[in-house]
Amino acid sequence: MRPTGTGPRAGDDDEPLSPESTEPLIGESRRTGIAAAPGIAIGRAYVVDRRRLKTIKRHVAAEEVDIEIARFRAAIIESDGQLARIKEKLVAREGEDHFLILEAHQLMLHDEHLVDASIRRMQEERINAEWALRKTVEQIKGVFDQIEDDYFRERRSDIDFVGDRIVRNLLGLETGPVAPPPDAVVVAHDLSPADTAQLHRAAVVALVTDAGARTSHTAIIARAHAIPAVVGVENLTQLVGTGDLLIVDGTEGLVILNPEPQTVLLYRARARRQAAIGEALLANRDLPAETLDGVRVRLFANIDVVDELEGALDHGAEGLGLFRTEFLFLGRTDLPTEDEHYQHARQVLERLAGRVATFRTFDLGGDKQTPFGAPASREQNPALGLRSIRLCLTKEGRPLFKEQLRGLLRASAHGPLRVMFPMIGGLAELREARAMVDECREELRTRGEPYDPVMKLGVMIEMPSAAMTADLLARESDFFSIGTNDLIQYTLAIDRVNEHVSYLYQPLHPAILRIVRSVTEAGRARGIPVSMCGEMAGDPMLSMILLGLGLEELSMNAVAIPMVKSVLRASVMAEAQRLAADALELATAAEVEDLVQSRMAEHFPGDVLRSR
Ligand code: PEP
Ligand code: MG
């Protein structure tokens, strides 16, 4: 279950920039947030509160207005130059991913809604530049707030970062990189993409933010670099000071402030145990995921950005089972071109050196909005709306979809590349998507561009309608990948981003087990591989039952690979099949959970699986 963002909201127009007075905390206290990246860390806080700026509010005389406007314009030019310099550095070191976000920030700096509206305020209300800008930023954030979509609401922070940078330049304050000492726990209201990208190299031990959700940049980058992180811990920056001792449990989403000595000892022991398990498990990196009786399962990684690739290989990924290409579209105002898709995929294949890469065509809409497509604000139910492959097959979406397909086809000349289509509802959609691939092949052939003529095309099984027609889909697909995050959402009718129904998110519900079984059977009947790439695939407690249900490939967050592999290497196929068969006889999710837990406990020390 992906929790929703719960960052504090701006109240009056001064709230986020001025510190609230809070009583110092005495003794140990605990705060919970969203578990964004697993692991335990203990360290001294380094508070990065770029927002503790008092907005100076001043009315100005008529003749001063032009001076304020000039100051404002100069601060924008200064901010632009700073972002350009960060961008240059990042591109040289990291590739294009963060560059795109910074470019979006640069565009925002010059956006008329920000610039013209602020200048109008200075002229009409006769107020100073800082105050006018502050009011404009709050007004724009208010518009973002109206949008009933987590992704968009999180983008409020982008406008904050931009506004903050201008204010700092107006005030002549430091805007340089965050530079925490090694082993620090970075505590921030929110971190800009530029900050986060620099932080992961600064040997920090954990990240904690007031704002954010699992799709925020902090969470994505922390997971990719195995830095324990908790996000959405409301008001933490108001409670913690630099130098305070903190325990961060990124697995449980818990932050302990000023822990008692015995709590530190307890968590040190837990961290040591987790580290020892992690280290020991990494020893299986180059070993195959093969059961004791010789059944081979392929373990792949899910990634969102190229940056995560090295970590995936370090954890023993045999390839990529899910590359969420929609991240190429996020955080920018223009759209990726064929050539960008090509260069991106080619770079991935080259780094994978012969291992397979599965690119999921862009899955926008729903909880991942861009200016392109139907705004979620206009949809009553974005998860059931114009998202994913549906968007690609609209008149507006087709040209963009073809840009991507041609880019991927061209890249397929450089290594084993598979393409899969998300949210396919039935054979008609699959045929339409495949026909577009054929069109693209034809166009490339005419242009004389090389591509793999037998590039594999697969279907994500994420909807009950796809699952029920898996036998039909299997005839015209090269592989299946079960996306359990959406499959569970649509089968059990629970919004995957609504915390109020998260208790109903039950991977072991009999309905889900039956669907998984029927999909693996449909795949086997046509001789096509069946993979699973939803979160369920990375839960080691479920590895044995998934094996028994007939999954041949599991794709997951790379950090989970060593543990899942160790479970599989200690499993026997006949036992896994017995577990699956027994589970399929049961009536409720709770009964299945009990059965799975008791069978797993017979084989694996409970402690090992608990610390996953
Ligand atoms: C899924 O739905 O299980 C899946 C892997 O796709 P996403 O989480 O990106 O929707
Ligand atoms: Mg999905």
What keyword list fits this structure?
612 residues; alpha/beta; TIM Barrel; 3 domains; eight-stranded parallel beta barrel; 16 strands; globular; binds phosphoenolpyruvate; binds magnesium ion
Q: Could you describe the 3D structure shown?
A:
The structure is a single chain. This protein has 24 helices and 16 strands. With about 600 residues, it is an alpha/beta fold. The chain has 3 domains: about 30-50 and about 180-280, 3-Layer(bba) Sandwich (Glucose Oxidase, domain 1), CATH 3.50.30.10; about 60-170, Enzyme I, Chain A, domain 2 (Orthogonal Bundle); about 290-605, Phosphoenolpyruvate-binding domains (TIM Barrel, Alpha-Beta Barrel). An 8-stranded mixed β-sheet has the order 1-8-7-3-4-5-6-2. An 8-stranded parallel β-barrel has the order 9-10-11-12-13-14-15-16, surrounded by 4 helices. The longest helix is centred in the N-terminal third of the chain and has 30 residues, at about 65-95. The protein binds phosphoenolpyruvate and magnesium ion. Phosphoenolpyruvate binds near residues 324, 533 and 534. Magnesium ion binds near residues 462 and 483.
